[in-house]
Write a structure and sequence with these properties.
Layout lengths: L2 H22 L9 H56 L7 H12 L8 H23 L13 H57 L12 H14 L3 H14 L1 H19 L1 H12 L10 H14 L2 H14 L5 H26 L5 H5 L4 H7 L3 H20 L6 H25 L15 H23 L2 H62 L20 H4 L1 H23 L13 E9 L2 E8 H28 L10 H24 L4 H18 L1 H16 L7 E4 L2 E8 L3 E6 L4 E5 H6 L2 E3 L7 E10 L4 H14 L10 E8 L2 E10 L5 H18 L8 H13 L10
Antiparallel strand pairs: 1-2, 3-4, 3-7, 4-5, 5-6, 8-10, 9-10
Helix pairs in contact: 1-4, 2-3, 2-5, 4-5, 8-11, 9-10, 11-12, 12-15, 15-16, 16-17, 17-18, 18-20, 20-21, 21-22, 26-27
Subcellular location: Cell membrane
Protein name: Miniconductance mechanosensitive channel MscM
Organism: Orbus sasakiae
Length: 883
């Protein structure tokens, strides 16, 4: 229901309810004498007359509703007959152009879709009236029964008769309101049935006529027919006079005149502000690329200003088309207005492209595209404005005028010229090297981009051939959808390069700050060195703004982020293409008739054979493609959009992403397989049997798979942890569903099954704390001073840069064996990677301290004696250099 009808219904209901309230608020009838009784009789007589008139109006209204119902019923039959004729004759349309024209004439005679908004308002009004009559009927009980014998007996009889008559009239009106409401509801249902029938006919016509020639093929008589129609349009249709009269009527109409004045003011403002716009572009272009002055807000303002500068002329164009379409008295003006409206958005796209391609505009200055390539792409801009736009207007105008009377001649000729113009424009853009798809390496020269370009370059030629063969409407619709898809695709590419520029600016700022900090540190160190050497020579330093700006390779540094951006843009592009081409789904219904194989399914105990058509296969392929894209891009999308904003434990985000991938893959496979006849009810027993068989035959693989899931949630290891399992020590780099990759100290990658991490002993050096303890065994001769050795070891531990102060290093005299003192130095390192550097440095310091204090190391006899002691006594055997 439209807003206007809703408001009117509410107002009617409010007024009726207000009248009811006023009626109810009237004072109770008081009759004390014959004069009062006479007044009441007069009032009842008037009311009864009005009620009888209302009953007559009710009967007339019911009759009108019944007549309209009969009309709607006949229209439904006519539409259904037309649908049946289409279904019967549809398969013969490809053999006869005359048959197609006859059926199209029948479609033109179809009734218009009824509007049910007024019915809703009438139903609401009838319900309010019914409530009013019920209230009046209840108020009759307030009239006195009048038993007073002093009143005139004849008047009393008339009074009671009028009351009974009014009661019957009100009951009749209440019943009549029920009838009206019922009949209006039936009429509303009939209107819906008519609308559904018309929609079915339109869908069937679209399905049958889309792939059928709508005009005769081009023959030798075509030039003669074209010349005759051109002469007829120019001299006989009275085109100029109709356009002139329509223009006069537009100027005399206040609404359209105000819109035109507004559009003209916008255009004048546009031309006056054009110089300021170019000055702003020149001013901002000098800041682009300078790390201290460049910002993404400059690019955003340039984009917004360019869109606004390209808008006034298309607005004026659209208003002119709207005004012409409103002049129904002039068919030529209406058709021309339709063409002008269709060309307005195309004109806006061309003007936006011109603004972006200006020397200081978005493409050259902000995106850094070569100026020669941009000029090559815009080579035929004048052709697009002065040729493409008029041709689009002419084609769309003749497509709407007088049942496409001139579409086979003038319309087809202009469409062919339009296709040739698109050939020149597309070739220019292709030679300029504009990418249609950017791969992971950031290159536009890839297989998908080449395939898309082949489609675009061949599309105008295919449209020309189709138009010459008689498939004019089909060629126009498909080419229009394809060009709209290209516009959407190029708009998404512009968004991608804008995001790329934002990332580039952020990266340059970070690198500049780092470079400036390094420069400050170097200057500080140089100044300190000069002070220490007493060199008072003044040094000249450049300003921080003149620091050399680093060159950033964005595709190498931010490849993962750019890959995520590309994936999101590709998904948006696919969704846009599906929505854009979904209007033509009925045109591709012929694929439902191409049956590939059949399947049998049981529904309610009845076995039904179903056939898998070509359309089902295409839908299944589309579902699987979308599923694969989601599985590939979901982890990065979740990480960027959701997980990084949540306070999750390390590894939990990876577990959520992995489980989400499996769920999406399973759901997508089930949906895709269902379209080709492989649903869950048919394969559940097969999957169960395979599960049992594979459980025995591939139990190790399943064990590793389940162990991988356990690792994802229990997190005994995480990416980056240093672990020791079996005889292997290294760092975790990948945790997959079957195996985990470990990089050892030799930089070798070892793939370890996940089962080992769950069932075997595992040492995680950095699970909850990365700090690790190192125990060094240091021997000394028997005559060495033990207090001196302990002091030396403690001092050495404090001097080593890799040793942590907390926990504090410890030194113990742990054993005396065969004239040898054995000391243990227990220290702590920050991380696993510091173990070897710490051992090396601290042992060097120990050797130096031993030499300073004339202490001797009992080596090599120590190793032999210790091994012998270990074998005899069973005590711990100390091997120098062990961890």
């Amino acid at each position: 229901m439209s807003l206007r009808n809703q408001i009117s219904s509410v107002l009617i209901s409010f007024l009726l309810l207000f009248s009811l309230a006023s009626y109810a608020d009237e004072s109770t009838v008081v009759i004390e004498n014959n004069d009062d009784l006479l007044n009441v009789i007069t009032q009842l007589t008037t009311q009864n007359s009005e009620l009888r008139e209302n009953i007559t109006n009710q009967k007339s209204q019911v009759q009108l509703i019944n007549d309209e119902q009969n009309t709607i019923s006949s229209q439904i039959k006519h539409v259904q007959n037309t649908l049946a004729t289409l279904d019967e004759q549809g398969e013969w349309l490809s053999f006869s152009t005359a048959l197609g024209e006859t059926l199209r004439q029948q479609l033109l005679r179809l009734p218009e879709k009824p509007k049910s908004q007024t019915l809703d308002a009438n139903i609401a009004e009838a319900k309010v009236l019914q409530l009013s009559y019920n209230t009046q009927l209840d108020n009759l009980n307030d009239y006195p029964s009048l038993i007073n014998l002093t009143l005139d007996n004849s008047q009393l009889i008339q009074y009671r008769r009028l009351l009974r008559e009014q009661s019957e009239l009100l009951k009749t009106l209440v019943s009549g309101c029920d009838t009206i409401i019922l009949e209006l509801t039936k009429l509303k249902i009939a209107n819906k049935q008519l609308i559904n029938a018309i929609d079915d006919v339109n869908e069937a016509a679209h399905r049958y006529f889309f792939w059928v020639a709508d005009v005769n093929p081009v023959s030798t008589s075509y030039p003669v027919a074209l010349a005759k129609d051109v002469v007829f349009v120019v001299f006989s249709v009275d085109t100029l006079s109709q356009l002139y009269s329509a223009t006069i009527e537009i100027v005399q109409t206040p609404q359209t005149l105000l819109l035109l004045i507004f559009a003209v003011i916008l255009v004048v403002t546009h031309f006056k502000s054009k110089s300021k716009y170019h000055q702003y572009l020149q001013k901002t272009s000098s800041r682009v690329g300078k790390v201290t002055q460049d910002s993404f807000s400059i690019t955003m303002r340039v984009v917004v200003y360019s869109l606004l500068m390209a808008l006034p002329i298309p607005i004026l164009w659209g208003i002119i088309g709207y005004a012409l379409q409103a002049d129904w008295d002039y068919p030529v003006a209406v058709a021309f207005g339709y063409g002008v409206n269709a060309a307005a958005p195309i004109l806006w796209v061309f003007m936006i492209s011109a603004q972006f391609a200006s020397p200081n505009g978005l493409f050259i200055t902000h995106f850094g595209w070569p100026i020669q390539r941009v000029r090559s792409a815009m080579k035929y801009y004048q052709l697009s404005v002065w040729v493409v736009i008029p041709l689009v207007m002419i084609v769309m105008s003749f497509d709407q005028y007088n049942n496409r009377q001139f579409a086979p001649t003038i319309g087809r000729f202009c469409f062919i010229l339009l296709c040739f113009a698109l050939v020149f424009m597309t070739n220019a853009i292709h030679r300029a090297g504009v990418p249609l798809y950017i791969d992971k390496k950031g290159s536009g020269d890839n297989l998908l981009s080449r395939i898309l370009w082949i489609i675009l370059l061949s599309a105008p030629w295919v449209a020309i051939v189709a138009a010459c063969l008689g498939y004019l409407s089909t060629a126009q619709v498909l080419l229009g959808r394809l060009e709209a898809s290209v516009v959407i695709w190029l708009a998404l590419l512009v968004i991608y390069f804008m995001i790329r520029r934002w990332m580039w600016i952020q990266r340059r700022r970070i690198e500049f700050e780092r470079a400036k900090q390094r420069r400050i540190e170097r200057l500080a160190q140089r100044s300190k060195a000069e002070e220490e050497t007493g060199n008072n020579q003044n040094t000249t330093t450049n300003s921080a703004d003149n620091v050399e700006e680093p060159v950033i390779d964005l595709d190498t540094i931010s490849s993962q982020s750019l890959h995520l951006v590309r994936s999101i843009i590709v998904m948006v592009a696919l969704i846009s293409m599906i929505l854009l081409w979904s209007e033509l789904h009925s045109a591709f219904a012929f694929m439902d008739n191409i049956k590939l194989w059949g399947t049998k399914s049981v529904i309610n105990g009845v076995e039904i054979e179903q056939y898998i058509s070509l359309s089902s296969v295409f839908i299944a392929i589309l579902v699987m493609t979308i599923t694969i894209q989601l599985v590939k891009n979901l982890p990065a999308l979740l990480e960027l959009g959701i997980l990084q904003h949540l306070d999750l434990a390390p590894g939990t985000g990876y577990a959520i992403s992995t489980i989400s991938k499996y769920i999406i893959l399973m759901i997508g496979c089930m949906i895709g397989f269902s379209f080709i006849g492989i649903d869950w009810s048919k394969i559940q027993w097969l999957i169960a049997a395979l599960g049992v068989g594979l459980g025995f035959g591939l139990q190790e693989i399943f064990a590793n798979f389940i162990s991988g899931l356990i690792m994802l949630f229990e997190k005994p290891v995480r990416i980056g942890d240093t672990v020791t399992i079996r005889d292997l020590t290294g760092t975790i780099t990948k945790i997959n569903t079957r195996a985990t990759t470990i990089v050892d100290w030799d930089r070798k990658e070892i793939v370890m099954p996940n089962k080992a991490f769950v069932t075997e002993q595992l040492v995680n050096w950095s699970l909850s704390d990365a700090i690790t303890r190192i125990v060094l065994t240091i021997p000394a001769t028997m005559d060495a001073n033990s207090h001196l050795v302990i002091d030396i070891l403690k001092r050495v531990a404090k001097e080593c840069e890799y040793v942590l102060d907390d926990p504090e290093p410890q030194v113990f005299l742990v054993d005396i064996q065969e004239g040898i003192q054995l000391y243990e130095l227990r220290v702590f390192a920050q991380e696993m990677m510091h173990r070897m550097p710490l051992r090396s440095e601290i042992q060097q310091l120990i050797i130096e301290e031993y030499h300073k204090h004339n202490l001797k190391l009992p080596f090599p006899p120590l190793q032999t004696n210790l091994e012998a002691l270990g074998r005899k006594s069973g005590r711990r055997t100390y091997t120098v250099g062990t961890v």
